[in-house]
Amino acid sequence: MDELARAADVIAGAPLVALACHVTPDGDALGSMLAMHLLCRSQGKPSVASWPEPFEVAPHYTYLPGLDTVTKPADFPDAPAVMVTFDCGSLDRLNELAEPAREAGELIVVDHHATNDNYGTINLLDADAAASAVMVYRLAKHLGWPLTRDVAICLYTGIVTDTGRFQYSNTSPEVLEMATELSRFDLPIAGMSRQLFEEHRFAYLQLVAVVLQRAELDAERRFVATWITADDLERFGVELDEAEGLIDIVRRTAEADVSCVLKEAPEGTKVSLRSITDFDVSAIAMRFAGGGHRAAAGFTDPRPIPQVLADIRAQIPVH
Ligand SMILES: [Mn+2]
Questions:
Q1: CA 124 to centroid of ligand 1, rounded, Å
Q2: What is the CATH number that goes with domain 202-314?
Q3: How much distance in Å is there from the Cα of 28 to the middle of ligand 1?
Q4: Strand duo 106-111 + 82-86: pairing
Q5: Range(s) for CATH 3.90.1640.10 in the chain?
Q6: Is 86 helix (H, G, I), strand (E, B) or coil?
Q7: Distance 196 CA to ligand 1 centre (A)
Q8: For residue 213, how far is its CA from the centre of ligand 1 (angstroms)?
Q9: Is residue 48 within 8 Å of residue 83, measured between CB atoms?
Q10: d(CA 110, ligand 1 centre) in Å
Q11: Distance, CA 218 to ligand 1 centroid (Å)?
């Protein structure tokens, strides 16, 4: 039996399905997990859904259906019979929920990261899938579980965020056909787009001005980088996860092929990398115990920003 059929069998037979996604979840992590949570509920199947502390949702994602039914990580089952993880390339991205994952009877990994290390008992992986939400969509079809409008909102959020509004190279016929089907559920597309991609607090926009002003362009390497310190966040009254989309502004630099944003976080320096050529930024992220895709990757390093930036720069060849 293939992995999709095995996953569907295990989920269909589970008394309770414990769902989790990676720490500081993005639109695809939350969207794919909540879609499965709502699908379970629509089938009368008990499920819990959670992610590691900080147990918060970035302002872009607060409209997602199902957020009122999620479970704090402290209340997550210790040893679930069936657990499913979403958009999570390795166990360490689950922080405190990695322990229940290790203890789970069956661990189904639903993911599309090329760097996924196959940590499940069933690994539903497709590096060519545009989003983890695509994998959930396939799983729902295989289960024969009909979509609902709320499920469609969650799945659409996963694909529209991971394809950069259907603009990145992962925008395949499959994902566009999926969007077509989802759009039949009378989705609030304009409202979601505004909240996901357009809207920011004025304080954040002022922080962006400072951060762009200090950006460094290394013309020889075609590399652009900037950073946000804890002082910046305090000065402007901005939360770290509000700055998630900063890389999408920095990577617009015409003179750069590789772009980088570094953020000072309590656990160290959080790094986002993007590439618009064949240069594989996930290879850099892997050197620093991170992961991702060829075109988009990241990692966290305990050292301060200047040292981390110097090490990243050294990995990028001079043209
Ligand atoms: Mn994803």
A1: 13
A2: 3.10.310.30
A3: 5
A4: parallel
A5: 3-196
A6: strand
A7: 15
A8: 30
A9: no
A10: 10
A11: 29
How remote is the CA of residue 30 from the centroid of ligand 1, in Å?
A: 9
Q: Note the residue count of the chain.
A: 319
pLDDT tens, residue order, the chain (319 aa): 699 999 999 999 999 999 999 999 999 999 999 999 999 999 999 999 999 999 999 889 999 999 999 999 999 999 999 999 999 999 999 999 999 999 999 999 999 999 999 999 999 999 999 999 999 999 999 999 999 999 999 999 999 999 999 999 899 999 999 999 999 999 999 999 999 999 999 999 999 999 999 999 999 999 999 999 999 999 999 999 889 889 999 999 999 999 999 999 999 999 999 999 999 999 999 999 999 989 999 999 999 999 999 999 999 999 8
Tokens of 186: 């009378």
Please tell me the distance between residue 231's alpha carbon and the centre of ligand 1 in angstroms.
Answer: 30
Strand partners, 226: 261
Cα of 235 to ligand 1 centre, how many Å? 32
With beta carbons less than 8 A apart as the criterion, state whether 285 and 93 touch.
Answer: no
What is the 118 CA–ligand 1 centroid distance (Å)? 16
Instruction: Name the burial class of residue 225, with classes exposed (0-12), middle (13-18) and buried (19+) by CB atoms within 10 angstroms of its CB.
Output: buried
Query: How close is the Cα of 168 to the center of ligand 1, in Å?
Result: 13
Centre of ligand 1 to C-alpha 319, Å, is 31
Q: What stretch(es) of the chain map to CATH 3.10.310.30?
A: 202-314
Which parts of 124-278 fold into alpha helices (H)? 132-143, 149-162, 173-183, 189-193, 202-213, 230-236, 246-250
- Global pTM? 0.86
Residue for token pair 């999620």 = 70
Q: How far is the CA of 113 from the centre of ligand 1 (A)?
A: 7
Ligand 1 centre to CA of 255 (Å) is 27
Which CATH code, of 3.90.1640.10, 3.40.50.620, 3.40.50.150, 3.40.50.2000, is assigned to 3-196? 3.90.1640.10
